[in-house]
Prior knowledge:
Elements: E1 2-6, E2 11-19, H1 20-35, H2 50-80, E3 85-93, E4 101-110, E5 123-128, H3 133-146, E6 149-152, E7 162-171, E8 174-187, H4 195-201, E9 209-215, E10 229-243, H5 249-254, H6 262-296, H7 303-323, H8 339-359, H9 365-376, H10 382-390, H11 393-414, E11 417-422, H12 425-429
Parallel strand pairs: 5-11
Antiparallel strand pairs: 1-2, 2-4, 3-4, 6-10, 7-8, 7-10, 9-10
Helix pairs in contact: 1-2, 3-6, 6-11, 7-8, 9-10, 9-11
Amino acid sequence: MSNQVTVSALERRIDMSVPLAEIDKDVEARLKKMARTAKMPGFRPGKVPFRMVAQSYGPQARSEAIGAAVEKALGEQIRSQSLRVAGYPNIEPKESTSTEALEFTAVFEVYPEIVIGDVSGQDVERPQLEVGDAEVEKTLDVLRKQRTIFVPAERAAQDGDRVLIDFTGRKDGVEFEGGQATDFPFVIGGGQMLKDFETAVLGLNVGESKTFDMTFPEDYHAAHLAGQTVQFEVALKKVEEPKLPEIDAEFAKTLGIADGDVAKMREEVKANLEREVKRRIQAKIKERVMNVLIETHPIEVPKALVEQESAQLAENAKKDFEARGMQTKNLPIETSWFAEQAVRRVKLGLIMSELVKSKELHAKPEQIRAIIEDFAASYEDPSEVVSWYYSQPQRLAQAEALVIEDNVVEWVVSNTKTVDVATSFDDLMGNAA
């Protein structure tokens, strides 16, 4: 017996009852089964009197029988009504005077019904950028700067120099904690020190000292110094100027070109750059496509799925912190921090699942192979990387998920208004000033 009540768009409450006679019958059957193997002092296994078995195991048998009866009754109702349950039902006992039935209420959420919306009125911008010599040179400049070395300079300190100093800080004439250092190196303009401190060192020569006042920002991390004016004494001990490596055979070797062939190095840089540009363009298109799907499918999502997703995101964040060497034992990571992100991810998951099913956007084997070969192309031995992916179903599943995403993106792009937009290298690569 049951009665379904719709509480909200996704929440359901089903009132049910199970005859106590059925439960009693199941309890007896369970106890008889237990009696066949029950062990008690003074009795051989299976020879314990049924009364004693019932006394010892009765509560356990009744709990199991009630759980099985509730699960069976709920399962029948879910199947008969074709309900898609999200999360786990909450079973609430009902107050009842009935001596013939156990009455309870099952509370749960169902998946939303999703109808694929019309995306034809939406715009999707496609960034356009062709990798040429200028982009290769910019990338080589970045790679050179990453390999900057510092050499001694016989002149006053300038912006960009690495200096070695001693300094002492005083507040009201008294040295304060953390305000002293000996043989302290830093790059002027590198952001390691406060801007006013860096400016004070500019123009000093080796062997010179300077005393200056400095006011800490109001939001400075050390509360006892925030907004306070102090006096620093600094002595310059060494000046080194930056020197970028030349684009030659030695530089090519640092980029993995064994024979130092500079032309080959430029070709590889260009090929890698083209792959990265393609990846970033696809990422921007994908981001817009996902926004289109959210905008054209205003659905409610089950709280249970959002809670599960929030918990997973919190766990991922914890693992990320630990991978960076941080201790997370006493670090409070609240699932509520990830609620907004979790809602978006659950919505997209449900929408994309329906889109894949209704538009037959499943990943084909040749698509999976192509994306894996693309991943492997930048490695020294691509065939080894391909074999690595195919050696475990879990790795293949990750590639399959990416193909499905690409299929969804392609479907949305082909059904929307696409606009090609010229994009600068710096904007796309995140190097814009």
